Amino acid sequence: MLSTMQEAPLSIAQLLRYGSTVHSEAQVVTWTDDGSRSASYAEVGRRCARLAHALRGLGVTGDQRVGTFMWNNQEHLEAYLGIPAMGAVLHTLNIRLFPDQLVHVVNHAADHVILVDATLIPLLAPRLAEFTTVRHIVVSGAQTPEIDLPDGMTVHSWEQLIADEPDDFDWPELDERTAAAMCYTSGTTGDPKGVAYSHRSIWLHSMSVCMTDGMGLKQGDLALAIVPQFHAMSWGMPYAAFMIGASLLMPDRFLQPAPLAQMIAEVRPNFAAAVPAIWQGLLHHLEDHDDDVSSMKLVVVGGSAVPPSLMHAFEEQYGIKVLHAWGMTETSPLGSVANPPAAAEGEDAWRYRYTQGRFPAAVEARLVDDDGAIVPKDGESVGELEVRGPWIAGAYYGVDAADKFDDGWLRTGDVGKITADGYLTLTDRSKDIIKSGGEWISSVDLENLVMGHPDVLEAAVIGVPDEKWDERPLVAVVLREGSDTTPRTLQDFMAGSIAKWQLPENWARITEVPKTSVGKFDKKRLRADFQAGDLEVERI
Ligand code: AMP
C-alpha cells in the first residue's frame, strides 16, 4: 500500500524563502580588517534573488555549475543559497588545492562562472587560461583588481552586476534528487573526486545539524563558522542556520588565533565549529592574552581526532564545551557526534565524549575486516568503517570509483571500532595505521597522548621501517619555544597510558607539522621528509 502523504520536494529555494522571511531578522556578520559588517537574512534573501537574475544574465541555465573561490563571508552565503535555488549547481572550490588540482576540478565540473573574493584573485588569476569552460569571473570586494584575462572570458564586479536586478526571483520547482552543490575531496591520493549533494540530501543533513543530539544548532544561536565553506560545505552550517534561524559570524580570511579571539570578544558568538588545529592555536593564544571568550558555550570539533587534553583545557579553563564529531566530504559531512548517553556521568561521560561519536538513525555504519567479513560491534573488534544513508555519497561525479564502495556502502578508509551502544572510536586512516610485529599501533592514540604534555604544541606520528618489528612509530614533535623537554621525558610521560611495546623510540623535533590543503596533518609529506633523510631522528 502506498502512503497517502504529499510528496513535497525538499529544496534549497524553500530553505531560502523560509529563512529570509520567518527568520528575517537573523544576521550574517562578516569580519573585516576594520571590525564587522552585517546583513539580515531578509537582505540576504533579496540579494540571492538579484544574484540569480545576474547569473541568468551571464547565461547560467539549467544545472550549469557556478564555482566559488571564496572565504567564509556574507557573499559566499548568498552563493550557497541563490545558486542551488535557481536550479544551478554550486561548486565550492578549495582555495588551498594545489594549482594543478584546481585546474582539474574546474574543468572536470565544467564551471561556467567563478565567483571570487577580490583578495583571492592572486591565487586564481595565474591559472585562468587553463580553465576550458569558464566564461565569466565575478569579483566580490571593494575593488576589482586588474586581471590578465584569456580570450572569451569576462570579468565583472559582483555589486555592479546585481545593482539593478529585482529583489525577487521566481525560484523553479526542482526534483529534490537533482544536484544542488558539489565539493571535491581534498585528494591526498590521485585527482580530487567530486561529490554532488542533492537538494534532498542537504535538507536532511541540515535537520541533523539542528538536532539536539546532532550538532545542536538552534534558533537564536550566533555561530562562528570557522570550518571553510570551500571544504565539506562548512559542515552544513550555512543551510542549517537558514533552516533554524541561527545567526552566522563569518571570519572571512582572518583565521589566525588573534583575530579569532578578537571577533569572539567583540561579536560574542556562543557556538563555533572548526578543526582541532584552530582550537589548539586559540588555546595557546589565550594563555598569553586575556581576550574575553565567555560568550562561547559550545564548539564542535572534527576533521581530525580531538586530543582529550584540548577538550579538558577548554572546558575547565574557559567553560567551553567541546563536542567531538566525525565526518567526511562524502558524508555531507556530518556522520557521528559524541554526545554522551544521558545516564553517563563524570569520567564515564568523558569516555564517551572522547570517541568520534554516535551515528544518527539515518546513517548506518558497519565495520569490515581485510577479508571482507563484517566484524562485531563489541567495542573491541577493529575494521574499516563503511556507512550508508540519505546524505552519504553513493558515487563520485563522472568517475568510476567502484573500489570506494562495497555493495552500496561507502568505504570510508577509516579504521576503528564501534560499541554495542553505537559509539565509534577511530584508531586510524587505513594507510596511517602502524603495524609493529604483527600488532597494530594507533598513530592517533600516540598523538593524543603526547599532545597532552604541556610542552608539546603539536605532534604527528608515522610508521617507519624497522628491521626487527617491520614498522615502528616515529613521533615528529613541535615543542614550545625554549622548552628543553627530551624525548625520554615525553616517553616517560606516555608510559602507563599505553602498552610498553607501543611506546615510541623514534623521535624528531620539528618546527611545524606539515598540513594538507585543509589543515590536517600531512603524513604523506612527513613520510617523504623521513625518506629523504630530512628529519633528524633521535632513537632512545
Ligand atoms: P575530508 O573529506 O577532507 O573532510 O576528510 C575526511 C576524513 O577526515 C575522514 O575520513 C577521517 O579520516 C578524518 N576525520 C574526520 N573527522 C575525524 C575525527 N573526529 N577523528 C578522526 N579523524 C577524522
TrEMBL record:
<dbReference type="Pfam" id="PF00501">
    <property type="entry name" value="AMP-binding"/>
</dbReference>
<comment type="similarity">
    <text>Belongs to the ATP-dependent AMP-binding enzyme family.</text>
</comment>
<dbReference type="InterPro" id="IPR045851">
    <property type="entry name" value="AMP-bd_C_sf"/>
</dbReference>
<keyword id="KW-0436">Ligase</keyword>
<dbReference type="InterPro" id="IPR025110">
    <property type="entry name" value="AMP-bd_C"/>
</dbReference>
<dbReference type="InterPro" id="IPR042099">
    <property type="entry name" value="ANL_N_sf"/>
</dbReference>
<dbReference type="InterPro" id="IPR020845">
    <property type="entry name" value="AMP-binding_CS"/>
</dbReference>
<feature type="domain" description="AMP-dependent synthetase/ligase">
    <location>
        <begin position="25"/>
        <end position="397"/>
    </location>
</feature>
<feature type="domain" description="AMP-binding enzyme C-terminal">
    <location>
        <begin position="446"/>
        <end position="520"/>
    </location>
</feature>
<dbReference type="InterPro" id="IPR050237">
    <property type="entry name" value="ATP-dep_AMP-bd_enzyme"/>
</dbReference>
<dbReference type="InterPro" id="IPR000873">
    <property type="entry name" value="AMP-dep_synth/lig_dom"/>
</dbReference>
<protein>
    <submittedName>
        <fullName>Long-chain fatty acid--CoA ligase</fullName>
    </submittedName>
</protein>
<dbReference type="Pfam" id="PF13193">
    <property type="entry name" value="AMP-binding_C"/>
</dbReference>
<dbReference type="GO" id="GO:0016877">
    <property type="term" value="F:ligase activity, forming carbon-sulfur bonds"/>
</dbReference>
